[in-house]
Amino acid sequence: MKLIQRRPLGTAKPMRSRGWTLIELLVILAIIGTISALVVPALLQYLQRTVVQRVIMDINRLDFEITAFEKLQGRYPIDLSELESGSHVDRYGSPYQYLPSTSKDWIGKARKDRFLVPLNSDYDLYSMGPDGESVSPLTSEVSRDDIVRADDGRYIGPAAKF
Question: Fewer Cβ atoms within 10 A, N terminus or C terminus of the chain?
């Protein structure tokens, strides 16, 4: 029979705390970086689509209000301030652009498609998009990000997809 010797209390070897090695830290950072590289662009793209959908909903609401105004008053509003709705500012911070066909500026400023044909016969209603800039033809680079009402209200969406 073997006797086990015990050490007196308080003489046990203290455990050394083990820290992270440089390699382990680099592996963890690489994993976090890879996950971030995959998640962040997807999240930003999702947020962008959400803003576009909200602008489309706003334009739909304004389109409905303009149509209701025209039915009640027998004319299109001169500008959006004649409508009873709240804000006429898009999600990018710019005012929605509205130009009725009865306006003297209609001929020169009406939005046009790639064949330079006006998008609407009644009125133009659009958001200038994230860059806040726009010109009449949709083929222009600054107009590609606009959210437009086209085909007399049958299309509301990004100008690049019209």
Answer: N
Q: Is the dihedral of CA 113, 48, 45, 29 positive or negative?
A: positive
- Per-residue confidence at 101, pLDDT binned at 50, 70, 90? confident
User: What is the pTM for the complete model shown?
Assistant: 0.75
pLDDT recorded at residue 33: 94
Domains, in order of start, for the chain: 28-161 (3.30.700)
Dihedral over alpha carbons 121, 123, 127, 129 (to 10 degrees): 30
Q: What is the mean pLDDT of residues 98-102?
A: 87
Nearest to 63 by CA among 33, 30, 32, 96: 96
Contact predicate 114/160, CB 8 Å: no
- Asked if residue 129 has pLDDT above 80, the reply is yes
Q: How far, in whole angstroms, is CA 144 from its chain's centroid? A: 14
Neighbours of 84 (CB within 10 A): 7
Q: How far apart are CA 42 and CA 109, in angstroms?
A: 37
Average pLDDT over the chain, rounded to an integer: 87
Q: How far is CA 7 from CA 11, 12, 62, in A?
A: 7, 7, 86
Judged by DSSP in three states, 36 sits in helix
